[in-house]
C-alpha cells in the first residue's frame, strides 16, 4: 500500500476504535442511530438515541464532512431519548461524500471537556485536559477524517471523563431508477416500480401520459397520483404506483416521477401497441 492508503487506513482504524476507561460506577451512557446510512441531498437527517444521566447538560453532536463542520447541543427528554432533525435545506447544501458523526456525553460532572471555540476567523476544537487544539474551519483546518479522528483521540485521553458514540453516513445526489416497462395494450393493468435513495415516506408525484399530444387533440390519456417511498434494502428504497391503461391508443407514453421536496424529476418511456 502507498503512504496515502496507509494513512487513510490508519485514520479509519482510529475513528472506529473504542475508548478504554478505568472501571466506573456511573450509569451514564449514550447511544445513537441515523435515519439512513445513505441520504439523498434534500432529505431530512434524523439522529436519534438514548442518553442517561443528563439532567443538567444534554449531549453534543458533531458532524465532520467534506469542507464542513457542524456542532449542536441537544436536550434530552425525560425518558432519556433525544432527536436531532436537520431539515432538507441543510442536506441540500452539503457536498456529496462521507460524513462522520460523534455524539458526546459529558458524564457525571455535566461539563464538556472537549468543545468548539471561535478564535478570530477560525473555529478550533480544544480539550480541557491539556488545552491541545486543532482547527476545523478556516486557514489550516484539517480534513473531515483527520478532524473526526483528532476529536476521538481527545475524548480517549485518560484525563477526560466524557464518553461518546459515533456513526457515519453518505450524502448522495438524489436518484430514482424506474424499472423498464414492457410493451402494453389498451386496458392493461400494471405497476410502475423502481429503486431510489430518497427517504422512506417521501412523497412523489407520478404522471403517466401520451408522450406527444397534438395541439389539435380534444382528449388524451393521462393520469397522476401521489405515492410514498417504501423501505428497501442495501441502502436503496422502493417506489410503486398502479396504472390502468383506459382507452389508450398505440404510441409512446411517458412516466414522470417528481419530487417537489428534492426539486428533481425522472422519466421513463414505454410503448402501447
Give a brief outline of the structure.
This protein is mostly beta strands and 273 residues long.
Strand order of the largest sheet: 2-11-7-4-5
- Report the portion of residues in β strands: over 45%
Query: Uncertain runs with pLDDT below 50, 5 residues or more?
Result: 6-10, 14-23
State the helical fraction: 10-25%
Distance between the termini: 57 Å
Quaternary structure annotation:
single chain
Q: Tell me the name of the CATH homologous superfamily of the largest domain.
A: Macroglobulin (MG2) domain
Total number of distinct structural domains: 2
Kindly report the CATH topology of the largest domain: Immunoglobulin-like
C-alpha geometry: elongated
| Mean of residue pLDDT values | 87
Describe the structure using short key phrases.
3 helices, mainly beta, 11% helix, five-stranded mixed beta sheet, four-stranded antiparallel beta sheet, 273 residues, 47% strand, Immunoglobulin-like
Helix-strand blueprint:
Blueprint: H1 3-15, E1 30-34, E2 38-40, E3 45-51, E4 59-65, E5 68-74, E6 81-86, H2 88-92, E7 97-105, E8 114-119, E9 122-127, E10 133-137, H3 144-155, E11 163-172, E12 176-178, E13 189-196, E14 203-210, E15 222-228, E16 230-233, E17 236-244, E18 251-259, E19 264-272
Parallel strand pairs: 2-11
Antiparallel strand pairs: 1-3, 3-6, 4-5, 4-7, 7-11, 8-9, 9-10, 12-13, 13-17, 14-15, 14-18, 16-17, 18-19
Helix pairs in contact: 1-3
Structural write-up:
Helix 1 packs across helix 3 (144-155). The protein folds into two domains: 3-172, Sandwich (Immunoglobulin-like), CATH 2.60.40.1930; 176-272, Immunoglobulins (Immunoglobulin-like), CATH 2.60.40. The strands form five sheets. It has a five-stranded mixed sheet, covered by helices on one side. With 273 residues, it is mostly beta strands. It has helices at residues 3-15, 88-92, 144-155, and strands spanning 30-34, 38-40, 45-51, 59-65, 68-74, 81-86, 97-105, 114-119, 122-127, 133-137, 163-172, 176-178, 189-196, 203-210, 222-228, 230-233, 236-244, 251-259, 264-272. The chain has three helices and 19 strands. Strand 18 and strand 19 (264-272) form a beta hairpin. It starts with a helix and ends with a strand. Helix content is 11%, strand content 47%. Residues 6-10 and 14-23 have low confidence and may be disordered.
Amino acid at each position: 500500500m502507498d503512504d496515502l492508503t496507509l494513512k487513510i487506513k490508519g485514520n479509519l482504524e482510529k475513528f472506529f476504535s473504542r475508548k478504554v476507561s478505568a472501571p466506573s460506577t456511573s450509569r451514564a451512557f449514550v447511544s445513537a442511530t441515523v435515519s439512513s446510512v445513505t441520504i439523498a441531498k434534500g432529505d431530512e437527517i434524523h439522529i436519534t438515541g438514548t442518553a442517561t444521566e443528563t439532567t443538567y447538560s444534554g449531549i453534543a453532536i458533531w458532524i465532520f464532512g467534506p469542507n464542513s463542520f457542524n456542532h449542536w447541543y441537544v436536550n434530552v427528554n425525560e425518558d432519556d431519548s433525544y432527536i436531532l432533525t436537520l431539515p432538507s435545506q441543510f442536506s441540500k447544501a452539503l457536498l456529496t461524500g462521507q460524513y462522520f458523526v460523534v455524539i458526546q456525553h459529558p458524564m457525571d460532572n455535566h461539563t464538556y471537556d472537549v468543545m468548539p471555540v471561535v478564535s478570530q476567523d477560525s473555529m478550533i476544537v480544544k480539550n480541557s485536559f491539556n488545552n491541545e487544539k486543532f482547527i476545523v474551519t478556516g486557514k489550516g483546518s484539517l480534513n473531515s477524517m483527520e478532524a473526526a479522528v483528532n476529536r476521538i483521540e481527545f475524548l480517549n485521553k485518560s484525563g477526560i471523563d466524557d464518553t461518546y458514540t459515533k456513526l457515519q453516513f453518505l450524502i448522495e445526489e438524489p436518484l430514482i431508477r424506474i424499472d423498464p416497462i414492457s410493451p402494453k395494450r389498451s386496458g392493461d393493468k400494471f405497476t410502475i416500480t423502481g429503486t431510489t435513495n430518497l427517504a422512506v415516506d417521501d412523497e412523489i408525484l407520478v404522471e403517466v401520459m401520451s408522450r406527444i399530444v397534438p395541439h389539435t387533440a380534444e382528449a388524451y390519456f393521462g393520469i397522476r397520483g401521489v405515492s410514498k417511498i417504501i423501505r428497501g434494502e442495501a441502502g436503496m428504497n422502493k417506489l410503486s404506483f398502479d396504472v390502468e391503461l383506459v382507452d389508450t391508443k398505440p404510441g409512446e407514453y411517458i412516466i414522470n416521477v417528481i419530487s417537489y421536496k428534492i426539486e428533481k424529476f425522472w422519466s421513463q418511456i414505454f410503448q402501447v401497441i
